[in-house]
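Case study 2.
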Amino acid sequence: MPNDWATFGADLHLELRGTHLRAGLMDALREAVRSGRLEAGTRLPSSRSLAADLGTARNTVADAYAELVAEGWLTARQGSGTRVARRAEPRDRPRHRAPTPPATATPVHNLKAGTPDLAAFPRADWLKAYRRALTTAPDEAFGYGDPRGRPELRAALAEYLARARGVHARPERIVVCAGFAHGLTLLGQVLRDRGVRAAAVEPYGLGLHADVLARAGLETPALPFDERGTRVEELPSLAGCGAVLMTAAHQFPLGGALPPDRRAAVVDWARASGGLVLEDDYDGEFRYDRQPVGALQGLDPERVVYLGTASKSLAPGLRLAWMVLPAGLADEMTAVKGTVERASSAPDQLAFAEFLRSGAYDRHVRAMRLRYRRRRDQLVAAVAAHAPATRVGGIAAGLHAVLTLPPGTERATLRAAARHGLAVQGVSHYRRPTAPPSPDALVIGYATPSDSAWPGALEALCGVLP
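Prediction:
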């Protein structure tokens, strides 16, 4: 039975080539039908939905559909939508379908954690902010500028972070950087220059971040973990440890918040040892079933370096992130950044400052919070209906969930997902080598697919769960 777009959420996944979008869309649809990837009777997305995913005008898609209907590739009926025509076997289609490969090179559905819905980027509001920012920008904004970043953005961030995340921020202590990893690279160099030998990390997290610190010449011992989260009481026993990297508000990827007693304990360690807590507040805007957990930095702004980013709330392609630094570290960081990379893009910084000041950022975050909560609720309901042995956790906040599987099934589930073109990662992917194994689980990034692709991705996921 052919997939129905509206009911089952089948995704086109077309590769558009060339610079003319309408012609490229038509060629891609012809090829999808010719190859058999789109079977006769398959319902296509509405012109409005596909135009939103492609970031183009609705008329562009509607015109392409109309021409393909005229050519006989598609049919269109009122109330039935646009479908692939039932037609004779294409001339160049093989009579015998090639066997399905064990795993697709390009995944059909992407449920990896770490990316927002890129189709939801607020293009119109961002363009308005960009135009206003460029219109009012002083001439000197297009020079090399201050390594800390544009003063307009640092002032806007100081106001926003104090209001929304409880961060004690002053513009002169904020340094704008090109993404979280860039900021962490600079911090690693400053820590090494200060004589720090080691920076502790959580037992589960992005290996990239530990690698960044290691490339700066720092050891990266992993702290132990229990049912309450990272065990920070082990910090005093780590020789030469002068910093610890933590996702205190929403542990990545396991999903919990660091309990209040451990939040206090890690700050007490930093005060007693002269160390620093590097706080990765990667998705602090997205809270659903609980009051927002304030930033750890609010407990002691002189011992905690706060790192935030627009990568989850807006898009990673903007390359906008920021550090709020203790007074004694701000000048050192500015000097290092001026040597390594003097400034991030000034026009993008000015646009983001305008986006914050105008209230467009708050409106966008509120809208995305509602959208992601709906997806999370749909995920929980679908898993409960199709895989009752699977437990869904880590869902009070953020853009991902942890699906705890029956013991011994993680690897087999990942293999099944790969065979069905589903990109997803197990919790073992995020485990540090010295950390004890956790229960078998999948880390599901439910924000990643577009709205039109989400139903199909959810159906595919339920189909591979044990």
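The radius of gyration is 25 Å.
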